[in-house]
Amino acid sequence: MSESKIRAKILSVGTYVPDAVLSNSCFESFLETSDEWIVTRTGISERRVVNMPRSAPGDMTAADMGCRAARVAMERAGVSAGEVDGVVVATFTPDNFFPSTACRMQADLGCTGAFAFDISAACAGFVYALTVASNMIAAGQAETMLVVGTEVISKTLDWSDRGTCILFGDGAGVAVLKATSGTAGVISSYLLSDGKMGDLLYLPSWGEERFLRMKGNEVFRQAVRMMSEASLEAVKRAGIELEDIDLLIPHQANIRIINAIAETLKLPKEKVMVNIGKYGNTSSASIPIALEEAWRDGRVRQGSRVLFVGVGGGFTVGSAVCII
Ligand code: UT7
Fold first, then answer.
1. Are residues 26 and 111 in the same domain?
2. Residue 118: which domain range?
3. pLDDT at 182
């Protein structure tokens, strides 16, 4: 790895999750389900939500949550709003069709010298945004960027559909990226999409029935296959071996999916980050939320080799190897 190449280093991560905790037992009052079923089949015990089931919609938007997470990340990085050159937001629950959630965040944060745009890649969104931002930095188009995953999925759920509503949670995570000429930074990434599988997992933009829908079983199978293959590809592109990875941070969709990937890749448990129990599936926010926790707990530190991998509706899959 050459030292002179410009790379995008992750300086810091900040997160925000709503205060309201929706526990599994809450679903037992209106759905044919149980805490035991949800924990065993998904690994989820609770999630944070803007919208409690069957109550008036909460006010908080993806941009509101993204801004809260961004302020934490920027303070940790010692980066001021004026230094930010670009804001890239991955979300499938934007505040509007347009203006973009990124533009709202750019204004609210006061990043007056920054460009801003959204990326739609569902649960793989954070890795897509990280890839785009790091390539812009490597190309010299920007020096400092915010990479955001933020979702208010609770506003899109059909609370009578037990196959989906028990899975998801709301939250935001933001990484501050900065150009560096050292060895740290995003060293490889891999993206692939398969639009033919669009009907397995979707959220319509129009019409009366605007709920997230999923063929859970098939999504499960594809998620294991695609994330395992993508993980190997990013490692290969980084020119390293899987054993060189210190921590795999996969999209938190289901503990059984994560365990199946770890088994396929023959990664020991201590090298796989899991925090789905507390947050459920927060889509594009799940990887930065997991990264922040791993960093705080000392599982990620300066020099750690981290492998991110996510899969989502589209279908989209993305992976990246990053030296912290
Ligand atoms: O972020 C990327 C996208 N999302 C994912 O990656 C999620 C992928 N899919 C999954 O996580 C799992 O497929 C689910 C958790 C959604 C479902 O788990 P499963 O083990 O695949 O269950 P299943 O769909 O095969 O259903 C088994 C049974 C069915 O009942 P019958 O037909 O056998 O009588 C379901 O109706 O479990 C039933 N079921 C439930 N029972 C209690 C489905 N959801 C629930 C529930 N509580 N919440």
1. yes
2. 7-180
3. 87
The Cα–Cα gap between 68 and 48 comes to: 15
Instruction: Take residue 209 and report the two structure tokens written for it.
Output: 């029935």
Residue type, 284: S
Mutate to test the pocket of ligand 1, among 25, 27, 34, 41 (most ligand atoms within 8 A of CB): 41
CB 162 less than 6 A from any atom of ligand 1: yes
Residues 13-67 have pLDDT tens digits of 999 999 999 999 999 999 999 999 999 999 999 999 998 998 887 899 999 999 9
CATH of residue 90's domain is 3.40.47.10
Regarding whether 195 and 104 lie in a shared domain, the answer is no
Let me know whether 17 and 151 are in one domain: yes
Annotated catalytic, 281?
yes
123 catalytically annotated: yes
Residue nearest to atom 18 of ligand 1 (CA): 41
Task: Give the whole-angstrom CA distance, residue 49 versus residue 20.
Answer: 6
Q: Which residue, judged by its Cα, is nearest atom 25 of ligand 1?
A: 217
1 within a domain of the structure (yes/no): no
Query: 42 and 136: one domain?
Result: yes
Cα of 55 to ligand 1 centre, how many Å?
25
Q: Which atom of ligand 1 is nearest to the CA of 281?
A: 1
The CA-CA-CA angle for residues 310, 311, 312, to 5°, reads 130
Q: Whose CA is nearest to atom 10 of ligand 1?
A: 216
Could you report the per-residue pLDDT of 85-124, keeping only the tens digit for each? 999 999 999 999 999 999 999 999 999 999 999 999 999 9
Same domain, 134 and 82: yes
Give me the mean pLDDT over the 228-247 stretch: 98
Domain end, chosen from 157, 180, 203, is at: 180
Q: How far is the CA of 216 from the centre of ligand 1 (A)?
A: 6
Catalytic (active site) residue 96: no
Q: In this model, does residue 1 exceed pLDDT 70?
A: no
Q: Are residues 116 and 129 in the same domain?
A: yes
Which atom belonging to ligand 1 lies closest to the Cα atom of 123?
Answer: 1
My answer on whether 161 and 267 are in the same domain is no
Pocket lining: 123 vs ligand 1, CB cutoff 6 Å: yes
Total tally of structural domains belonging to the chain: 2
Cβ atoms of residues 121 and 315 within 8 Å:
no
CA distance 286 to 249: 9
